[in-house]
Amino acid sequence: KAASNTELWAAWKIYAEERGELGYIPSARSLGRRLTSQGYESIRNAHGITGRGYKGIAVKSIFGGADEDDK
């Protein structure tokens, strides 16, 4: 599993805004720091990600379907 910084930030922002929690992690940079502190490995142009992202985490589809890796 891996997800790009863009995917992770977009998903977090929607989730946090709906719950009034955006103040806890208010930027993509602070989200990246939090993921790193939780042990997720920062990657670049690897594991199917073009650009920067994190290994070991994925964003679920809002449509409820499983990702190909989850099957």
What attributes does this structure have?
71 residues; alpha+beta; 35% helix; 15% strand
Specify Rg, calculated over alpha carbons: 12 Å
SSE string, helix = H, strand = E?
EHHEE
User: Count of DSSP E strands?
Assistant: 3
| Strand adjacency order, main sheet | 1-3-2
Task: Provide the helix percentage.
Answer: 25-40%
For the largest beta-sheet, the strand count, sense and barrel status come to: 3 strands, antiparallel
Protein structure class:
alpha+beta
The amount of beta strand, in percent, is 15-25%
Whole-number average pLDDT? 89
- Parts with pLDDT < 50 across at least 5 consecutive residues: none
What is the number of helices? Answer: 2
- Which shape, going by the Cα principal axes? globular
The span between the termini is 12 Å
Q: Nutshell version of this structure?
A:
The protein is of the alpha+beta class and 71 residues long. It has helices spanning 5-19, 28-37, and strands spanning 2-4, 41-44, 52-55.
List the helices and strands and how they pair.
Layout: E1 2-4, H1 5-19, H2 28-37, E2 41-44, E3 52-55
Antiparallel strand pairs: 1-3, 2-3
